[in-house]
Amino acid sequence: MIEALIENVRGIGRRTIDRVWRMGVAAHFFVLVFLHSGPSFRRFHLIIREIFSAGVLSLIIILVSGLFVGMVLGLQGYETLQTYGAEESLGVLVSLSLVRELGPVVAALLFASRAGSAITAEIGLMKATEQIAAMEMMAVDPIARVVAPRFWGAVISMPLLAALFSAMGVLGGYLVGVVLIGVDAGSFWSQMQAAVDFKEDVLNGVIKSVVFGVAITIIALFEGYDAPPTAEGVSRATTRTVVTSSLAILGLDFVLTAFMFRGV
Amino acid sequence: MSDNLIEIRDLSFAYGRKLVLKGINLTAHRGQVIAIMGNSGCGKTTLLRLIGGALKPTSGSLLVDGVDIGRLDQDALYRLRRRMGMLFQFGALFTDMSVFENVAFQLREHTDLPEEMIRDLVFMKLNAVGLRGAHELMPSELSGGMARRVALARSIALDPMLIIYDEPFAGLDPISLGVTGNLIRRLTDTLGMTSIVVTHDVQESLKMVDYVYFVSEGVIVAQGTPAEIKASDLPYVHQFVHGEENGPVPFHYPAPDYALDLGLAA
Amino acid sequence: MQRATLDLWVGIFVVAGIVAVLFLALKVGNLGGFDNSETYEIRASFQNIGGLKARAPVKSAGVVVGRVAEIGFDSKSYEASVTLKLDARYPFPRDSSASIMTSGLLGEQYISLDAGGEEKMLVNGDTLKITQGAVVLENLIGQFLYNKNDSQTDSAEPVQ
Fold first, then answer.
1. Which of C13, C17, C28 is opposite residue A196, by nearest beta carbon?
2. What is the CATH number of domain B4-232?
3. Is the CB of C24 less than 8 angstroms away from the CB of A167?
4. Is A174 within the bounds of a domain?
5. Does pTM top 0.90 for this prediction?
6. A7 in any annotated domain
7. Over chain B, what HEC string results?
8. What ipTM does this complex have?
9. Of C27, C55, C64, the CB nearest to A197
10. For B93-108, what is each residue's pLDDT tens digit?
């Protein structure tokens, strides 16, 4: 009985140590990526390639989801606001919720499952098929050649995708609110402009999406680089990327929101 | 300059506490093709990784071109590796690049050659392995044997002094097998390189190598020229060359008495 | 994929992303307003600012002419001291008055600036002398009930 209890406590301890140790390794990896980023900026086409696979290939899902989220916000917002006779504030509701929260967060969640998982699978597979080892044997540092360009490509793509998501969302809200339901277009835009501040809302949203981009990418890269070089290991790492980065996005969002909008 | 490109003296290596290699002595002259043979799990691949500098020896010395590779820092190791090539078991081609880009990879990474010269060099290397016509294909469109040859073209891109082959014959049909074997011999001779082949394909490798080392459980149990090996009456070598089921390497994994496991013992 | 096609797509993506940011900044946000133009600061003290927040609009005749830059507490006079940032294009006479209003019944609070008659104009760092604090709903209701009580007990006196 006591034995079993001690064994359980020991298990908790072991898992905690493992987690902390892994976080340390990940942090070290993050630093390494930064230190080895020089060559990818000297050969910028490497980064352009990764912007393509992280950013351009995520465009469709981001644009379509943005449009639909905005349209739903428009519908739901209208239902609620009209009970207070404040349907002119629809623009404010749609734009503030998108620019401050939904844009960066939902775009980041989509990005994690679209681009993040792809990065993990790609790097994990490169490791499993000895491509990383081959590169090392050819005296090419895989962190500089494979990891760093993917990092910067994804980090550059993320805020652009989040901005596109928000913009599409506002258009979606406009479509439903103004074109379909018939809220006055003038007050839709003017109330929105009066309420949304560039620095407080738009810029903070951009900062959020940059932070999310860094978090997702480093998790995806690390999971891929750290994955056991087997089919099972890579598929597990891919799942872990989506789960971990989604949790990281939501956690970071809370922290950032608390810092940015507290007491304003 | 010493005649020996590789000199391994009393090399031991341990993963943690498990001793994998015990006191290996091995010499490779320039221009030779050396085979390292042994059954699976005997430490051959570990030995390759040591020569490539991916692992550091626990004790002993490992000289490649007169430099102790275990004592090099990262930069010096990378400089040395530019003069080494390695062929991985399944080629390890970069799946996101075409055949041409795969062969051009090192030229682009390590040199500032103009595009036309890279083009010419790549075509020369691809021609040497007979795959100039396939330069536009992606690795996924190649057969196993072709992928191996592209990988070979890639590893000779910078005209290395040494090429290490990890199981170059694994999973090839007889034609590709012969082609690959001949290629290794021919490239070694024409480019003045030294080759180290890790393999368990006895028949194919005995046709083309200059010297053979047999490794078993971390020690070298036999060595000699192909003729000496074929004539050898050492039980291990005999079993290996003729592919017998039982010998020094038993068919059965060590286990308790069979009758005991079946519950038949009294 | 060809390098040129790749470059084109990435180019389209980056331009679209920047256009989206500009759209959010100019069309959705208020960057097109006076935020980037010249401003001057004036101060005003209020007995009670109610729910006024930093960045709330300052309006005159219903037009936004500035924003609340900062809200502080003056521990000598026990009043709220509010710093207003006004657009330099709109000068106001020195005897202008500021009052805190509410847009709609439950809407946001803003400062309404009523121009005075003096010839001298406000300059950076000036303080407004005439101010009217926020109307606090609870006080209003309390006052109303109190007055009603009064009028019931002493109906001879008219309600003020």
1. C28
2. 3.40.50.300
3. yes
4. yes
5. no
6. no
7. CCCEEEEEEEEEEEECCEEEEEEEEEEEECCCEEEEECCCCCCHHHHHHHHCCCCCCCEEEEEECCEEHHHCCHHHHHHHHCCEEEECCCCCCCCCCCHHHHHHHHHHHHCCCCHHHHHHHHHHHHHHCCCHHHCCCCHHHCCHHHHHHHHHHHHCCCCCCEEEEECCCCCCCHHHHHHHHHHHHHHHHHHCCEEEEEECCHHHHHHHCCEEEEEECCEEEEEECHHHHHHCCCHHHHHHHHCCCCCCCCCCCCCCCHHHHCCCCC
8. 0.82
9. C55
10. 898 888 999 999 988 8
